[in-house]
Amino acid sequence: MSAPDLPEIIDIHTHFMPQRVLDKVWAYFDSAGPLIGRPWPITYREDEGGRLAALRALGVRAFTSLNYAHRPAMAQWLNDWSSEFAAKHDDVLHSATFYPEPGAADYTAAAIEAGARIFKAHVQVGDYSLADPLLDDVWPVLERSRTPIVMHAGNGPAPGRFTGPESVRDLLQRHPGLVLVIAHMGMPDYGDFLDICAEHPDVHLDTTMAFTDFTQATSPFPRERMDDLVALGDRVLFGSDFPNIPYPYEHAVDAVRRLGLGEDWERKALHDNAARLFGIR
């Protein structure tokens, strides 16, 4: 598939980070560390300008930066960087993150006030519980603001101490008004997260790495749940994990299109659902 063949896309799961942070992320992928477990070449290992140019050449209309913190005293710095990055680029959805630490509710509220439109919570890498008391004041801020949270809480590519669908169920029981986007379709627990999405109208799923040959080899999507994908067609959003993907970007798009769920479903997943959620016209 060549770039001109791609439809209009909004990608809600891309990563732009301070270079020293990204270098550490790439080094971890290069090492095939325990959270990865197999070789994972970085297809778009370019400088920031090259990565921006690559997405734009592919016709991606809007995308995120999705930094995430894995230790205290990191989130605020990442939020400041993400705010500056979004201010420089009109096609970037202003992204932010948080971590269980004193003051998290204050800097989360400050990020929203500064224009953050999407947050990233990475339970696996951050190695924290969604029920951590230090997050008790964060969730109401996000719930009241209705700011979407891309949440990596699934057990893929390897389980963490606090990952899994039950942690998300418990969070939604306490804060049913949260707007969540479950990263990677919740792989490998696709069925559980499809059920959570069906039960909670403010829960969405992103397609990040799902359905690709790379993922199907180890965590195939269950064919018997395809009808659920159709039923939840208004709440499936395209994500890629660019630039940290071990295949060309076009393959991620093709993996969604080859599901064969119809042009209307594809258009909503690749563009319209995100445009509605983020008010992109």
Global outline: globular
Q: Secondary-structure element sequence?
A: EHHEHEEHEHHEHEHEHHEHH
Model regions low in confidence, pLDDT < 50 over at least 5 residues:
none
> For the CA atoms, what is the radius of gyration?
17 Å
Polypeptide structure, described:
The mean pLDDT is 96. The protein has one domain: Metal-dependent hydrolases (TIM Barrel, Alpha-Beta Barrel). The protein has 281 residues and is of the alpha/beta class. The protein is globular and about 45 Å long. The strands form 2 sheets. Strands 4-5-6-7-8-9 form a 6-stranded parallel sheet. Strands 1-2-3 form a 3-stranded parallel sheet. The chain has helices at 19-30, 48-57, 75-88, 104-113, 123-126, 138-145, 165-174, 190-199, 213-216, 226-231, 249-257, 263-278; strands at 9-11, 60-64, 92-93, 95-97, 118-122, 149-152, 180-182, 203-206, 236-237. Keywords: Hydrolase, Lyase. This is Amidohydrolase.
